[in-house]
Design goal:
Helix content is 29%, strand content 25%. With 468 residues, the chain is α+β, with helices and mostly antiparallel strands. The strands form 6 sheets. Strands 3-2-4-1-10-9-11 form a 7-stranded antiparallel β-sheet. A 6-stranded antiparallel β-sheet has the order 5-6-7-8-12-13. Strands 17-20-21-22 form a 4-stranded parallel β-sheet, sandwiched between helices. The longest helix has 15 residues, at 267-281. The chain is globular.
């Protein structure tokens, strides 16, 4: 997947496997492969055989990080894996996961998707306990908090950590003989459970279960911890619900793969509904609807069906170029954008075109897309965005921008229209977005649109705040 704006920087993907009947490292590898869209900086797998934990991490894509000999060396009947985009801590091998942590009575490997907003305070406290740190990520803080928790049972350790951690965390954790899946009480990031050949798989998205042949069972509930071992899979802790839920609605808009199920709903259908709602809220006379590939394609189809305007692929994506945000600075991001998409002049020449996109963040890429289509001969360009204006930064696992960098926080809709070079611009409304997903407003975090965060946050946070 890619976004036209190219500035939404995803979080991470996690997977956990417990099986006596499978090559668990290979299952974890292909699960991560299905979650590659969630992070492209580094990848890692840890395996255990009941006696010891073995770990392999490397920079780059999943397919680059592991060779056949690497998987052969990861033996056992338990494994967890991680593919990373950094939201706290820089992009280097010391921050690759899974992370190993040893406490007085336990050793774990941990893979984390999310962002802990009280990481600085917790790190200072853990250092006072005598913990040492080999990375600059908040994930190592979670790992040390678990292994050094003042408790002797897993229920006690997890309860203690949930009391102390603030923010977002979907975790895959492995000991020498068990795999755990843990989701924060707000349920910000997704996590689901599948059954595989007498064993169990835990993954960020259900598409990973599909890729390894696992049967989707259910999502891990907010505030729940599940454990898989020789006794099967069971809930070992469930925090009492307080009525608050805050799943990131951008999972439905952009982050999750369209073939994943979130909240019991297929993401592709949610995106089609967003496009249809856009057509009702922002109709226009046009000859053609196109989507910015790939994440806006389903919404473009929905817009087309609702409006009656034919859908076509006016932009072709180079599928061998990764998401723009993985490049390290703005100059290289701009160069990457130019390699990503190419218009089809024979289809768009002289046409009035509705261009459906998933979001506009900084506005780096959208003007380039509009310019490409203009050069391809488009007569009119009407930009439709299946998210409301993004006006506030995310502090729960998405490194999108600071507020001063967010286009909609500093310009009106009319000014943004002129900035990107479109003839008209329409954003999906808050109500239209909620109606499209169909799960109710109380289920979601929409802070990037409203500034109403589910927990108090520092308004500007630095992803490198834990750097030594």
């Amino acid at each position: 997947m890619t976004t036209a704006d190219g500035e939404l920087r995803d979080a991470c993907g996690v997977v956990g496997v417990y099986s006596r009947n499978d090559d668990v490292a290979r299952v974890a590898f292909f699960g991560l492969y299905a979650l590659q869209h969630r992070g492209q900086e580094s990848a890692g797998i840890a395996a255990a055989d009941g006696e010891r934990i073995t770990t392999q991490t490397a920079m780059g894509l999943v397919g680059q990080a592991f060779q056949e000999e690497d998987l052969v060396g990861l033996t056992g009947h338990l494994a967890i894996g991680h593919t990373r985009y950094s939201t706290t801590g820089s992009n280097n091998i010391t921050n690759a996961q899974p992370i190993i942590s040893k406490g007085p009575n336990v050793e774990i490997a941990l893979a984390h998707n999310g962002n802990v907003i009280n990481a600085v305070e917790l790190k200072e406290e853990l250092a006072g306990w005598g913990c040492t740190f080999s990375s600059t990520s908040d994930s190592e803080i979670i790992a040390h908090l678990i292994t050094n928790a003042p408790a002797t049972t897993w229920e006690g350790r997890i309860a203690y950590c949930m009391r102390r951690l603030e923010g977002a965390y979907s975790l895959a954790i492995m000991t020498k003989d068990a795999v755990f899946g843990i989701r924060d009480p707000l349920g910000v990031r997704p996590l689901c459970i599948g059954k595989l050949n007498g064993g169990w798989v835990i993954a960020s998205e259900s598409c990973a279960l599909d890729h390894v042949g696992a049967e989707y069972i259910r999502e891990v509930e907010p505030g729940e911890a599940v454990m898989a071992d020789d006794q099967g899979l069971r809930t070992v802790y469930q925090r009492e619900p307080d009525g608050k839920s805050a799943m990131c609605i951008f999972e439905h808009i952009y982050f999750a793969r369209p073939d994943s199920i979130l909240g019991g709903k297929l993401v592709y259908k949610s995106r089609m509904a967003m496009g249809a709602e856009l057509a009702r809220e922002h109709p226009v006379d046009a000859d053609m609807v196109i989507g910015v590939p790939d994440s806006a394609t389903a919404a473009a189809v929905g817009y087309s069906q609702e409006s009656g305007i034919p859908f076509a692929e006016g932009l072709v994506k180079n599928r061998y170029v990764g998401r723009t945000f993985i490049l390290p600075d703005q100059r290289l991001r701009d160069l990457g954008v130019r390699r990503k998409m190419n218009p089809l002049p024979e289809l768009i020449d002289g046409k009035r075109i509705v261009v459906v996109d998933d979001s506009i963040v900084r506005g780096t890429t959208t003007p380039h897309v509009v310019s490409l289509l203009r050069k391809g001969g488009a007569k009119e360009l009407h930009l439709r965005v299946c998210a409301p204006p993004i006006m506030w930064p995310c502090h729960f696992g998405i490194d999108m921008a600071t507020r001063r960098e967010l286009l909609a926080a500093n310009k009106t809709v009319e000014e943004i229209r002129d900035y990107v070079g479109a003839d008209s611009l329409g954003y999906l409304s808050h109500e239209g977005l909620i109606n499209s997903v169909g799960l109710g407003k109380s289920k979601f975090c929409m802070a990037c649109f409203t500034g109403d965060y589910p927990v108090p946050v520092q308004l500007e946070m630095d992803k490198l705040v834990l750097e030594v």
